[in-house]
Amino acid sequence: MPNYDVVILGGGPAGERAAIQAARAHKRVALVECQHVVGGTRINWGTIPSKTLRESALFVASLTRHKLHGIRCEMAAEVTVAELMYRERLVVQRELELVNASLARYAVDVIHGHGRFEDPNTVAVFGKDGMARLRLRSEVIVIATGTRPNRPPQVPFDGERVFDSDTILALPRVPRSMIVLGAGVIGVEYASIFAALGLEVTLIDTRAQLLPYLDREMAALLERELRRLGIILIHEDHFATIESCAGPPARVCCSTRRGERLEADVLLYCVGRDGNTDDLGLDTIGLQPNQYGLLTVNENFQTAIPHIYAVGDVIGYPALASTSMEQGRQAIRHAFGIPGPRGRTEELPFAIYSIPEVAFIGKSEEALGQERCEVIRGYGRYDYNPRGQIIGDEGGRLKLLFAASDLTLRGVHIVGTGASELIHIGQAFLKSRATAKDIAETLYNYPTLSDLYRHAALEALGAHLRRCGQGEPVP
Fold it and tell me: Does residue 278 sit in the same domain as residue 267?
């Protein structure tokens, strides 16, 4: 029975970074991964592949919708998803090479198999034949097993007409129409991607409001832009039945609880994800996941058993690759008393790779209102920005929220092209506790979308001066 300083279950972004953090501290590390490759959903099935398809969708949209005089472009009537994702294999292979090289450089023992607890300090690793191959003992164990798409038994997943987020990219060809059940991050991203590719998309949101954790004003702006893409968005409804429609060609029919009957070539079901905890032997050690298979942790990512940590998607929101990586690092730092940042991962930037992109960091206007913090808003509008006009983004917007008392920045919210990149400027301003004056006096290249920050800060300064009975700031 090999003894390790730490055993990590799951080789996705959280487990990988936890392993490297521990190995850099000269700890003996075992990383147990049930798949034949490391990298998890981030590299192999979700983040990288879906973002590759998104780039193709943006390219198609730019050719077909942002037309130039005298230039005509058409997409073939029959095109496969694989053809739209031709760069995906190159990117995935390169990422896997980098991850494997990093794990090898730090001498992390990567063990392929299914890990299951035998007692609080022992993990048995099982092969595909169901036989235990070896047992690992450690004083610290990290659960980073991630999540999988929720698959209700009444949904007839067949890989031909009905898909989940793990199988949708295996579509043999691009269909003409799609129903997307679930308007969380994954549903919104895929709905906008396929709409940009020219599909007729119906998006059904089980909630009354789109993405309720977003600033409400920005969520409304995103909804407007999704509708401009041609997406039919239905709120506060659920599916009642899903079945095949008579062909040819064969289609899928979805009846909703509110009486809608929808037909499309394919249906994507993405209402929630479940934690990969049902076969970890947690019952043998007294750990109880919630109804979604997710684990509860404290601020140090410890479960109810202090030497067993859980990080990444398996603990729920925000379930981002970036936050998962930092959670893995922080769990190891806490376990072994390693110095390093201990900031809350909820305060990291959040991005949704829809079309258009959405990103935010800090507080929403609603959250600040609950804290009784009076705010002053400042907006940077893409249609007033030369770079925004050049790229044809007329609906994008940057929203900065400042505390009225001292004009310090409290929240940054963006809907528009490059939001996932622009948000890091806001992150730096928030970290430095910048004021509207600091942001307005920062120099930006021209023409750039970054200059939106200056315009938003100037607008906030103007609002503040008007409140004080003074004139406008000098632009």
Answer: no
